[in-house]
Design brief:
By secondary structure, this protein is α/β, with parallel strands linked by helices. Helix content is about 40%, strand content about 15%. It is built from 22 helices and 29 strands. The strands form 9 sheets. It has an 8-stranded mixed beta sheet with strand order 10-9-11-12-13-18-19-20. A 6-stranded mixed beta sheet has the order 1-5-2-6-7-8, with helices on both faces. A 3-stranded mixed beta sheet has the order 27-29-28. The protein starts with 14 loop residues before the first strand and ends with a helix.
């Protein structure tokens, strides 16, 4: 029969116990056990039972992560606060039992079994003495937590994890644990927001070579790709089990270093366990090229919350400047009143039952206690009076870290849940023994119900509560690590992730507060596959490479890009046009033939001047209406032609100024009808000259056609045809004000849309037909005898008229914007001026300056 008092052949090497009515278990992660692998090439050595423990201690090499000793102190400090608080669980004392997991699955299982057994002897499923273990706090890394949960699930003992939640799979559903660290998904979203904030699109990733690292990559890679961030490489940090594997890690690390430094990525996202930082510090030593080591200082490390700035004691004098300027997501924490004094009071001589402090003290202060070694002591002897505050920050911190803060909150969470549980009247909740409240150990499964609904404010004022999935409702702080040349460091809070804030305000960061590596000269670091595409260009993905690697091509004509690295160029709004660099939109000018510009003023002045001249010619003719030169060739026909020319000049003014609905309706129709009247008058004049000559022949029958009637018929019939065309035009598809945004890039052209372009060319065509007929008849009759060379003048005037309008067509078709109206206005003025000058100016010259020729005798003399 096995006795509970028998010596355990496999004792836990580091543990800390404090008795109490209720016990809180703790799974610490402070020391690595460094061993060589067993080869089984030699038979085992028989060791007497009384020397087993001493042999085991001497055969192990312990490497302590000194900073993690604060986790043990945080648990002890929380227990001390609870026991001193008369409002929380009165008449009940809390104790604790802390054991080390040694970052090993084997030792974690061993430690967990020890916690739920008696203190003196490991007897699974058998309790020799009463063991009021109400819950277990731990562990630090998710694999450790999973191993603990596997055991505690059998006994339904609550587990509060102060590190990240373990990776769950189909074989481990529904393990009862409560997560004191914020959710991993929140941290992933924070990393993504940080990368997007600084526009880091080409990054490297370091992860531990385990299930957690694989899960991290599988989770964030699609998330990053959706947001335009590519992974330049994924390097896995090896998990070392034996001393002999360190050499293999160093040899493989040289190749890993070369691959990393060959990448263009300047930002490294590192996801690892609590001790991963010791390998990051090791990284520069893997290169034998000092220049490459210096170049490594030009990288930005982004650490996840599980990692802490820790190092082994032999690394304290290493160059840690590669970490300077790094950004780290840390679990939110606050300074707790009295915690620093509690830490400062700790030393080996004032502490009883603490199995961790001796090895911690010796390795942290590089000294030896005489009673821990046999024989002569070499090196510095520990006095126990060394000051913890003198240790470098990578070994130990006096201010509370995020993991210690989680442990503190976890212990208080258990206490508050027990307090609520003890306050309710359950049938079997307690027994009264000597006036004190005592709990049955068989009832701890009921504690889950109260843990799920716990909510309280801790001594720092932070609210502690869980969501429906058993995860604490909390966020992350973003810390900038500042490493001094002497190796000391301090943390600067530069941002945070608050899950309770609105979605667009969850992530916040102060760029100005960040201190970057001196390599960057305080300029924001850049981490892209290639240089940014500047505004005015767009990205073109390189074939066969990730989409983060691309070429830059200029924006095509008519498009712009305002920002760096745009995927495509876009058109400006209709009211704007691209500048010459194609990186901004400039407001378009409103363009039309205006009275305020030089061209419009010149054309308007010409129109008014010709109108005045025409009016003066008309006045001259009317004043001398009885003179032979006026009476010759139908005096009224001349008046009609002069009036129509006057209207033609004035009609040109309709093409100047901003187009309106009325002016658009009148422009072409008035121009077409008035010009048709003018050309009809010319045609009538030409036909009159021909008929007058033919009527002078003896026996000619043409005399009856000579007179006002024929001229009026010609004018009216020809004008009515044009008027009919214009009426149909206005009735079916009239002109209207419109804007043209396509012809000229820099302008919005305000114009008159002709409505039906077919009707417009019909008007021009009919007018051209009349002009052609007049020109041909005048040309054929140019040599007919006439007193004042009327046929010649008409021929020359129609030649000018036709030349103007023949050149008008190609010029009109090739013109753009306001110059279309200018071309038509000029053609109207030029052709009208041609008719006025060629037909009437010679006659005015005779009337005004050669009045002796304007006599009937002169006319008879010339005819004879």
């Amino acid at each position: 029969m096995v006795s509970c008092r028998d010596r355990d052949p496999h004792p836990v090497l580091h543990e800390y116990h404090q008795s109490g009515d209720l016990i809180v278990g703790g799974i610490a992660s402070q020391a690595f056990i460094v061993v060589s692998p067993t080869t089984f090439t030699e038979p085992p050595i028989a060791v007497p039972d009384d020397l087993v423990y001493e042999v085991k201690l001497s055969s192990f090499g312990f490497v302590v992560i000194a900073k993690n000793y604060q986790h043990i102190l945080a648990l002890g400090f929380a227990i001390k606060e609870i026991n001193e608080n008369p409002q929380l669980l009165p008449n009940i004392t809390f104790g604790f039992h802390i054991s080390d997991s040694y970052f090993s699955a084997k030792w974690t299982y061993r430690t967990t079994m020890q916690l739920i057994s008696t203190l003196e002897r490991l007897v699974p499923n058998y309790i020799c003495d009463q063991n009021n273990m109400v819950s277990v706090i731990g562990g630090l890394d998710s694999p450790i937590s999973l191993h603990v949960a596997t055991i505690l699930d059998i006994f339904k003992i609550p587990q509060l994890i102060y590190g990240p939640a373990p990776v769950m799979n189909d074989k481990t559903p529904g393990l009862p644990f409560y997560q004191m660290a914020p959710k991993e998904a929140l941290q992933y979203a924070g990393i993504l927001s940080l990368l997007l904030h600084f526009n880091w699109t080409w990054i490297g990733v370091f992860t531990m070579d385990d299930d957690n690292g694989e899960k991290f990559v599988q989770t964030v890679a699609p998330l990053f790709l959706e947001s335009g961030i590519c992974l330049a490489f994924v390097e896995k940090i090896p998990v070392i089990t034996f001393v002999t594997e360190i050499e293999d890690m160093v040899q493989g690390g040289e190749e890993r270093f070369d691959r990393v430094m060959a990448s263009k990525a300047n930002v490294f996202v590192t996801y690892g366990d609590s001790y991963s930082m010791v390998f990051v510090i090791w990284f520069p030593l893997l290169s034998r090229n000092p220049n490459m080591t210096e170049k490594l200082k030009g990288k930005v490390w982004i650490m996840t919350a599980q990692m802490d700035f820790t190092s082994f004691v032999f690394q304290t004098d290493w160059d840690m400047q590669i970490i300077h300027g790094s950004l780290s997501f840390t679990i939110h924490s606050n300074d707790l009143p009295g915690f620093k004094l509690f830490v400062q009071s700790r030393n080996p001589s004032s502490t009883t039952g603490d199995g961790f402090i001796t090895d911690f003290w010796q390795q942290a202060f590089l000294c030896t206690f005489p009673n821990t070694v046999v024989g002569k002591v070499d090196g510095v002897i520990c006095t126990g009076l060394e000051k913890l505050e003198n240790l470098p920050g990578s070994l130990f911190e006096m201010s509370m870290t995020g993991h210690s803060y989680n442990i503190y909150n976890a212990v208080h969470t258990v206490a508050h849940a027990l307090h609520v549980m003890s306050s309710l009247r359950f049938p079997h909740r307690a027994l009264v023994d000597g006036g004190e409240l005592k709990f049955h150990s068989q009832q701890w499964w009921q504690l889950h119900r109260f843990l799920q609904s716990v909510s309280f404010n801790n001594s720092a004022g932070d609210l502690v509560s869980f969501d429906q999935n058993g995860a604490i409702v909390a966020g992350f702080d973003i810390i900038n690590w500042i490493i001094s040349p002497n190796g000391s460091f301090h943390r600067v809070k530069v941002g945070k992730i608050n899950p309770q804030a609105p979605k667009n305000q969850m992530f916040s960061i102060d760029d100005i507060a960040i201190t970057w590596q001196s390599w960057f000269n305080q300029v924001r670091p850049v981490s892209v596959c290639n240089d940014y595409c500047y505004p005015g260009s767009s990205k073109k993905v390189k074939e066969g490479e990730p989409f983060c690697c691309y070429d830059c091509i200029p924006c095509p004509e008519g498009k712009i890009s305002k920002h760096e690295d745009t995927n495509d160029c876009y058109k400006c709004p209709d009211e704007y046009y691209p500048d010459k660099n194609r990186n901004s939109c400039i407001p378009r000018d409103i363009s039309f033939l205006s009275y305020e510009e030089s061209l419009g003023i010149c054309l308007a002045c010409c129109a008014l001047s010709f109108s005045l001249i025409t009016a003066l010619v008309l006045r001259t003719f009317m004043k001398n209406h009885n003179t032979p030169i006026v009476k010759a060739n139908n005096r009224n026909l001349s008046y009609t032609l002069l009036i129509s020319l006057l209207l033609c000049f004035l009609c040109a003014l309709l093409f100047i100024g901003r187009p309106q609905k009325l002016t658009c309706l009148l422009r072409q129709t008035a121009f077409g009808i008035i010009f048709s009247v003018a050309v009809s008058c010319v045609l009538a004049k030409t036909i009159t000259v021909v008929l007058a000559f033919m009527a002078t022949k003896p026996g000619s029958r043409m005399r009856k056609w000579v007179g006002k009637g024929l001229a009026n018929v010609i004018i009216l019939s020809c004008s009515l045809i044009q008027a009919s065309i214009c009426t149909v035009w206005l009735a079916t598809s009239p002109p209207f004000p419109d804007v043209d945004i396509h012809s000229v890039a820099e302008e919005i052209i305000v114009e008159c849309n002709e409505g039906s372009i077919t009707m417009f060319y019909c008007v021009l065509g009919y007018m051209g037909f009349l002009a052609s007929v007049s020109f041909m008849i005048a040309f054929l009759s140019r040599k007919l005898p006439d007193s004042f060379n009327e046929a010649k003048f008409i021929t020359f005037s129609m030649l000018v008229f036709c030349s103007v309008w023949l050149s008008f067509v190609p010029t009109y078709l090739s013109a753009k914007g306001k110059y279309i109206a200018a071309v038509e206005t000029f053609s109207i003025l030029a052709s009208s001026a041609g008719l006025l000058g060629c037909i009437f100016l010679p006659k005015c010259y005779i009337i005004v300056f050669r009045s002796e020729l304007n006599r009937k005798e002169q006319l008879i003399r010339i005819k004879s």
